[in-house]
Design brief:
Structural class: alpha+beta
Number of helices: 2
Order of helices and strands: HEEH
Distance between the termini: 57 Å
Strand content: 15-25%
Shape: rod-shaped
Length: 75
């Protein structure tokens, strides 16, 4: 009976750690996607000829100076 309880506790700890690992992996993927989107946006700003551009900040669509938008992406 005690062996079963020890095994059950061990499996529970393994499952908890597996859940943490999966959560961390999803977080890394989300951060990598954001980094890639920022890189793509920075490249598009560098290619653009005009001095103003449209950017999205959360749910907002803003028209701002290209240099300010580039500084915002760098942050």
């Amino acid at each position: 009976m005690k062996e079963q309880q020890v095994m059950l506790d061990y499996l529970q700890r393994v499952e908890e750690k597996a859940g943490e690992i999966l959560t961390d992996k999803q977080e890394v993927i989300a951060l990598d996607k954001r980094r890639n989107d920022d890189r793509v946006g920075m490249r598009a700003l560098q290619k653009e000829k005009g001095d103003k551009c449209w950017i999205t900040v959360g749910p907002l669509l803003l028209k701002m100076n290209s240099k300010k938008a580039e500084d915002l992406l760098v942050q």
